[in-house]
Specification:
95 residues; mainly beta; 7-stranded antiparallel β-sheet
Length: 95
């Protein structure tokens, strides 16, 4: 599944995520149990370095129409040059 990341009140995505996987953690993560793992070639779609905005809420919009508020928890590069990382979901995925 694909997704886009947006800053609040902006129409253009700051990141285009090529592959996302939604994972629900076990009962040790009661405050925010849902994580989204992503892989992309184009993390910084608008020349905005998303990794510098870790404390800023972002809006994630999935290609199936669902959306939620997220924080960037981790990101790095894999051996093929893709950016991979984890987003922490702050609320429920809404339709």
């Amino acid at each position: 599944m694909k997704a886009n990341l947006y800053f609040a009140n902006q129409n253009d995505p700051v990141a285009v995520l090529d592959e996302v996987k939604i994972v629900r953690m076990n009962d040790n993560h009661t405050a925010a149990p849902v994580r989204i793992y992503y892989k992309t070639r184009k993390l910084n779609a608008r020349r905005t370095m998303v990794e510098l905005h870790r404390d800023r809420k972002l809006t994630l919009k999935l290609e199936d129409g669902r959306s939620c508020s997220v924080l960037l928890q981790h990101n790095s590069l894999d051996t093929e040059g893709h950016t991979v990382g984890v987003l922490r979901v702050l609320d429920e995925l809404a339709d």
